Sequence to fold (546 residues):
Amino acid sequence: MSGAARLRRLRLACWLVACALGVLAAYASRHDMNPDGVSYLDLADAWRRGDIPQAVSLYWSPLYSWLLAAVLALVGPSARAEFPLVHALNVLLYLGALASLEFFLRSSAPRPAAGGEAGPSETARTVWGHALFLVGALGFVTLRQVTPDMLVLAVVLLAAGLLCRLADGAGPAAAAALGALLGLGYLAKAVMLPVAALALVLTAVAAGGGRRAWPRVAAALAAFALVATPWIAAMSSVAGRPTLGENARLNYLWLVDREYHAPFLSYPGARPAPWPLAHPPRRLLDAPATFELAGPAGGTLTIWYDPAYWHRGAPVRLDAADQLRAVARGVRAYARLGLRLLPLAVGLVVLFALLGGRRAGAWRRREGVLLALGAAPLAGYLLIHVEPRYVAGPLVVLGVALLGLVRVPAGAESRRLVGAVVACVVTLQVVPLAVDTVYHWAWLQTRAAGAPAVAAEPWRAATGLAALGVRPGDPVAAAGDYFQAGWARLARVRIVAVVDRREPLGCLLDAPCRARVVAALAPTGPCAVGPLRPVRRAQRGVRANG
Fold:
C-alpha cells in the first residue's frame, strides 16, 4: 500500500472516531440547555418574527441566532423537541469545525527545507492535529453547551489555513476570503474583532510585507468591512450612537472591575452598587429577598436577554490592582488547562529535547504567523477572563504550529521516534476523553432505564407549570437558581421576578413566608412562582395571581 493510501485511511479513521465521539456526546446531552442558549433561542424567535428592535442585541452576536432561526423555521419542532434539534445543529457545526481542521492541516503541510531539515511527517501531523481538535472541541468547547464557540473554533482554523496559503504566495482572492471569514467570525462572537485586527496584521506579514502585501491587506480589510459593517450600523441605530457593541465593556465590568456582577455571579440588588444604574432591578421584598426584573427587553430571562439594558449607567473603572488580580486568575486558569493538556505538553518537550528545533533560518513565515495567531489571543484572554471554550481554537493552532517546529533529520529512525512519541501522547490524551464521553452516555442510558432521566427535568418542570394553569406568554417568578431557565423556555413563559437563591427554599413552603411573597408579587403580574431547586420539585409551584 502506498504512503498516500495509508494517509487517506488514517484520515478516514480519525474522522470516524471524531464523528462517533461527537454524535455520542451530543446525544447524551441532547436535552441540556444553558443560560446563553436560552438567550440565543429567544433572539432566534425575534428574528423569525421580524422584530428587529428586540433581535438586534448590543451583547449577543447574531450569526448563531440566525442559524437557530433558520433551523427552527425549517423544522418547526415542538417545544419538547426544540433542545434536541439545537444540539443536532451543534453537531453540524462540529463537523464543519472538523472539516476546517482538515483544511488547516493540509494548508500548513511542511515544505522541503534547506540543510536536510524537515518537520514531522503528515501521518504524525494528522494524528496530532486530530487529538488537539478532539480535546478542544469535545473537552473545552463541548457539545453540551449551546453557544457559538464551535463556530468560532471553525473560523479560527479556517483563518489559520488561509494565512498559511498567503504565506505560500496566494493572491488577493485568498486575502478577501480571509477578510470575509473574519467578518463572519465577528458576527459569531464579538471577541473575534480584535482577532480580526491581528489577522489583518498577520496578512501583511504572511505576504512578505512591502508593496506585495498592500493589495492583500486591502482586499482582506474590504471584505471584512463588507460583512461586518451592516451589523455595526444596526447596533448603532438601536443604541442611538456609534457603537461596536457592549460585550467588551460588560465583561470588563463583571470580570475585572467586579463591581456589577453578571446574574450568575451575584444576584441583582444583593448589595449597594458603587454607582447608580439607569435600570436597576427593583427590590420587592427583603425577607425573602425578591426582585422585579420586568422591563422593555424581551426574552425568557429578560436580565440575560439584554444585559446592556440592565447595566446601563455603570462606568468602567480602570484599576491596576483589579487588573493584576484578573491576570492572576487567568494564570491559575491556564495552569488548570495545562494539567488537562499535560500529555501533549510533555510530548512536545520530549520531541524538542531529543530532536531539537528547526533553525530559525529554516522557518517559514507561516510558522511565525501561526505562533502569533495562537499565542496572542491567549494573552488577550489572560487580561480579562480565561475559560476553556474561549481558547480552544488558539490552542489547536498553537499546538500544530509548535509540532511543526520540531526538527526531524532525514532517516527512518527519526520518523519512527516522532511516530512513537505522538502515538503515546494521543493515547494518553484522547483515550480518557473518549472513555468520559462513552461513560456519560452509558450512565444516562442506565439511569433512564430505571428512573426518570436527569435530562428530562426541564420538561417535567415545564409541564408542572402547565398543570398549575400557567400558559405560554405568562409572566412568572422564579425561586432558586433562576439563571438556569431552560424550563421557562420550554414552557414559553417570561421570568419577570426572582427570589434570591441564597434564601432558604423551605421558606416558600412556609405559609406566612409564602403569603408575603405572593403579596409582593401581586402588583407585578406573575401568575406562579417556580421552579424550586432541584428542578424535580417544580411541581410545587406557588400560585400568585389567577
Remarks:
- The chain has two domains: 3-236+321-439, 283-313+452-546.
